[in-house]
Specification:
single chain; alpha/beta; Rossmann fold; eight-stranded mixed sheet; 8 helices; 35% helix; Thioesterase; TesA-like; hydrolase
Length: 267
């Protein structure tokens, strides 16, 4: 495992399934520590650490979603992908997870057995209206609007100065990102979202179902953009069930790629 790009939390079982997690804009690998604790020892969480934050804060952040996905895809080795694995991306991380999975599939590499795409609307030919922000004040206002347990940190000027470079880079990447029509993936998709998210409607999130030829489902939880802060046990249950289906499908020689009916379930 590339210790620069991936963080492991705790000691999983030797045969634990792997969940590779992609943080939100301005976020870091440590955002997935709570989920990792809920999933251990059955699932090993490998959280991506983007440049420009925490222990990589002196590195230049990446300002292009496709470039970031290409680097991550190149860093994945047999150690991460030999056993059944899945991707989980929250907010901006959902786009990075999708693009990484798409690259792996197009290259003929081993792709994730399932994509968990959280708190992000399906992409289109233009940036989302909440992604194009003119200055730092607008970025900070947008972050405060999203809420979450760490929003109070943005009242501390020193902490704001530390996280602003990563936030600027991430929002620049979001503003520049546009999706062009491509063949749908062959990877099953689980969409997760909050029913009171101020920037992503359930309908926008459900648009991800058109991005796969395989099965898809939409799970809607009470809460906003960071619904998982209050519904972590429920999210962990959905993820555990989905990741286990990856292992079962691989044991059945790839049955996870069969098209099955979409389920829209409110959790």
């Amino acid at each position: 495992m590339d210790g620069q790009w991936f963080r492991r939390f705790g000691d999983p079982e030797p045969d634990a399934l792997k969940l590779i997690c992609f943080p939100h804009a301005g976020g870091a690998a440590s955002a997935y520590q709570p989920l990792s604790r809920r999933l251990r020892p059955h699932v090993e969480v490998l959280a991506v650490q983007y440049p420009g934050r925490q222990d990589r804060r002196l590195e230049t952040p990446v300002t292009d979603i496709g470039e970031l996905a290409a680097v991550i895809a190149g860093k994945l080795t047999d150690g991460e992908t030999a056993a059944p694995f899945a991707f989980f991306g929250h907010s901006m991380g959902a786009l990075v997870a999708y693009e990484t999975a798409r690259l792996l599939e197009e290259r003929g590499d081993r792709a994730p057995g399932r994509l968990f795409l959280s708190a992000r609307g399906a992409p289109g030919p233009r940036p989302g209206p909440h992604d194009v922000l003119p200055d730092d004040e607008a970025i900070l206002a947008a972050v405060r609007r999203l809420g979450g347990t760490g929003v109070a940190l943005f009242d501390d000027p020193e902490l704001v100065a530390m996280v602003l470079p990563a936030l600027r880079a991430d929002y620049a990447a979001l503003a520049a990102y546009s999706w062009t029509p491509r063949e749908p993936l062959h990877t099953p998709v689980t969409v997760l979202c909050g029913d009171a998210d101020p920037v992503v409607s359930v309908e926008e999130a459900a648009g991800w179902r058109a991005f796969t030829r395989a099965e898809s489902e939409v799970r809607v939880f009470p809460g906003g953009h960071f619904y998982g802060d209050q519904r972590l046990d429920d999210v962990a249950e959905v993820v555990l069930r989905g990741v286990r289906s990856v292992s079962a499908a691989r044991a059945g020689n790839g049955a996870c790629h069969d098209r099955t009916p979409v389920s829209d379930v409110r959790g």
